[in-house]
Amino acid sequence: MSENKRTIRRKTTFHTRFFFRKYPAFPYILKWLCISIIIGALAGTASAGFLTSLEWATNFRENHLWLIALLPAAGFLIGLLYHHFGKDVEAGNNLLISNIHDPKEIIPFKMAPFVYLGTIVTHLFGGSAGREGTALQMAGAIADQLSKPFKLDKEERKTLLIAAVAAGFGSVFGTPLAGAVFGLEVFLIGRIRYNAIFPAFASAVFADLVTSLWNVKHTHYHIDLVPKLEFSPVLYSVLAGIIFGICAASFSRILHWMGSVLKSNIKYPPLRPVIGGIIIAVAVFAMGTTRYIGLGIPVILESFEKQLPFYDFALKMIFTIVTLSAGFKGGEVTPLFFIGATLGSALSLFIPLPFGLLAGMGFVAVFAGATNTPLACMLMGIELFGAESGVYIAIACVVSYLLSGHNSIYTKQRIGEAKNRRYESDRDSSVSDL
Questions:
Q1: How is residue 308 annotated by DSSP?
Q2: CB-hemisphere CA count at 13 Å for 144?
Q3: What is the pTM of this model?
Q4: How far are the Cα atoms of 130, 227, 259, 266, 321 from residue 262, in angstroms, in the given order?
Q5: Within its chain, how far is the Cα of 119 from the centroid?
Q6: What is the full DSSP assignment across 39-62?
Q7: What integer is the mean pLDDT of 245-264?
Q8: What's residue 425's pLDDT?
């Protein structure tokens, strides 16, 4: 019996070794499938809780508009929190990108509750900010805690953070394909890290599924009319893409410039959101509308239904730049959706394309130019608006990406491939270096 057991053991060992030699990728797939399921469960749950809280904060603010008067005080508290306890996580998304390039110490877990609290407070009291930054930071901070239990090396930690970014983005917007590609291309302009493709897609899909299991609903958009693919509509799409690219570059540049101005003139960090809060609160009460604060989802939906005025996108840009450069927390992406969609809708005044299509093109194209993620934005457009508009969306995203230059809302992005041969010397530089 003992001899039989040894024989069976030898045969089992032989077959196992033969299997792994024949399918060498199997251990990798099994390992990262397990990690991706955990990342997806954690990031999806975090996004679900965050989106539910954000909806509550928005509704409560709209029913109690006097809260906006307290925005400067709320900003001071956020500033104090980060100044005294969160200096090591204040860089936010740029900290995640820096660690993807060169992983160092584990990202502190406190990044997740800090950015969650800061974003909810920003929205509750009337700041103009988004949600993607919060979702990415929560997912990244939570996922990086898995590095030690799974004994991940430096290269594997890069993959882990990419998967976390993919999970956070895919779950917060309900676009897992776009989330996966966003994680793969956001940190390095012009290149994609293909050795992380499986963890990125698996994590994004699992995170989106988990968010759905929590019964959290995402906003649905619809483009009523998509013209037949012909020379004239394509030409008009290129023209719109040029305008979207200029808008994206302008947003990035002004955002960083405004942040520098506030830092150089207000040395005590907690006072910066106080000044920004005063500006926002006074502007809201003077204008008598909350149209340009918060996420602005109702206005984005409106841009698909009718032609909007040009000042909508400009005012949202101003409100968002003041909010984020002053130190309030949240993301830039949903405001970029607002800016792009309303700009696109307004462009239908002189570009003979349906305003709904232009709104959809602007929705993703301004985002593509401001983050240098054209492939993710193409997929997002198809996931949100349908494949019928895919070619027009792709044209706008590519043109916007090229026209926006080496600008980005993420200053720690590095240039993997220059957008133009004349700028080959910029390769491997970060946006902040330029």
A1: P
A2: 27
A3: 0.94
A4: 21, 46, 5, 6, 12
A5: 14
A6: HHHHHHHHHHHHHHHHHHHHHHHH
A7: 97
A8: 66
